[in-house]
Each structure stands twice: as C-alpha cells, then as structure tokens.
Amino acid sequence: MKKILLICFLSILLNSASAQQPVQAPAFAIGNFTDDYQITYSINDTLWIQYPNTKYRILKWNLEKQFLIAQNDAGNKTDRHKYTRIDFMSFTGMAPYTWGFCLTAYDADTPEMAEKKAIADRSNPKKGCNGYPFSRMKKTVTQATNEK
C-alpha cells in the first residue's frame, strides 16, 4: 500500500512540475512592437499586451508549429476568461516588418479548443488569416510598460 501511495504521490508531483514549466517565446517576439495598423504591443514570455487595454496571459508557446495559446484577461472588454490561439510567422523582404501574427481563435471555451482551431495559412500571409492578412510587426524602441 505504501508503494502505491508513493507512486501516486511521485506521479502527481512530476505532473505538477511539468505543468508549471515556464513558457518561452521566440527571441524575435519579445519586446515592444507596432503593427501595420499602428497598434502597439508589448510581448514577453507570459504576457501579450495590445494597447491600450487588451491582455492575453500566455499559457503555451509551440515554436515548432508557430502558435501560442493564451487566456484572455479578466479586464478585456470582450471574451473575458476565454482562450485565444495566435499563429505567427517570420517574414523576409518586408523590412521593417520582421514577423506577423493571426488571431486564429479568440473566444474558445478551453485551451484545447483554441489549439484545435483551423491553422492560419502561412503560405499566403496576405489572406491566410481567416481571409485577411497577418498583422505585420516591427520592433519599436519604447513602450509605456512591459508588465509581467
């Protein structure tokens, strides 16, 4: 009985530790940005802020498949506490824009539902975001804040 309890305890401990591993953004996506619509952003490993007052708490970065999953902040005007999938891609030959993103899902009930949404079409960045272009991002020097 003690062995079974020990195995259960270790299993719970390992699952808890892996669930709390820090998420890590790709280097190009960290910092302050302005998109091609003149909207400003601050992005770090765990928080995506679209100014003036939209926040996404990042739960997972999938670098291989180029997307992140986040929970919409309680203070957002719409879709509070829902889940968002943001697909991203790097650009070449579009300076000063170095990368872009697509809000593939923004109102999913669970992180798993957000992750299962249709993938953005990176082969067509001008229409691959649900029929619209990816928002192109360029680095800016300063921003009001980069909260954690």
Describe the structure.
The structure is a single chain. The chain is an alpha+beta fold. It has one domain. The protein has two helices and eight strands; from the N terminus they run αβββββββαβ. Strands 1-2-3-4-5-6-7-8 form an eight-stranded antiparallel barrel. A hairpin with a 4-residue loop joins strand 1 and strand 2. The longest helix has 18 residues. The N and C termini lie far apart (44 Å). About 11% of the residues have low confidence.
- The number of distinct β-strands equals 8
- Uncertain regions: pLDDT < 50 for 5+ in a row? 4-20
SS summary, helix count: 2
The biggest beta sheet reads: 8 strands, antiparallel, barrel
Principal-axis shape: globular
Radius of gyration (Å)? 18 Å
- Please give the oligomerization state of what you see: single chain
Main sheet: which strands, in order across? 1-2-3-4-5-6-7-8
Provide a compact summary of the structure.
The chain is α+β, with helices and mostly antiparallel strands and 148 residues long. The protein is built from two helices and eight strands. 16% of the residues lie in helices and 34% in strands.
Defining key terms:
alpha+beta, single chain, 8-stranded antiparallel β-barrel, globular, 148 residues
